[in-house]
Amino acid sequence: LQWVHQNLKNYADHLLRVSRKPRRVVEMVDLSKLIEQTLAALEALGKTKYIGVESDLCSEAVFVRISRAHIEHILINLISIAADGVLNSQATLRRISIQLIHHAEKERIELRIQDTASREHGAFIQQCLAGEINSSEALDLMVAKRLVDANGGILRATSAEGEGTVLFAEFPTEFAAEVTSPLLYKLDAPEPPQSGNFTRSELERTRLR
Fold this sequence. Notes:
Blueprint: H1 2-19, E1 26-30, H2 31-44, E2 52-56, E3 63-67, H3 68-87, E4 95-103, E5 108-115, H4 119-129, H5 136-150, E6 154-160, E7 164-172, H6 200-208
Parallel strand pairs: 2-4
Antiparallel strand pairs: 1-3, 4-5, 5-7, 6-7
Helix pairs in contact: 2-3, 3-5
């Protein structure tokens, strides 16, 4: 009984820690590096273990001023949804590709996640984004969409026969707004400085985190 009690206590403590509302910390994030770390973590968890994963990231570091928790949540949700679509499809070629494009002149970045799933999967994603389907996968997509919207971005999907589905997420390189959706926690951290100029020391501190 003591063993059962201790395990139940540990589980309850874990749930309480997970349920606590994290504070938003806006910082400079190297998006290329974060994508690589996210892909490695998803592979270690077995999410992408049985499919091919290709990445075409910027050769130089791409810093985005954003909440690390937000962008991690977006990456995990979108890549996992693409991977699930491939694993659940009858496609001979099971692969997803992630491409990061930096539009320096527009101060925006574009993330493309393409899979080889069926056209039906693409139609399902588009219906989820339109709020026409209620499911766990639809909730993951809607949370990702709210986070993208909250940071001044756009999330959309296209699908074509034989080409799979492409999820497009576009963000400004500067932090934008706050989430107001009831699906997400209230953000209560102070606003970051409005200046887009970062000192060398700030960049170095960011790299050391």
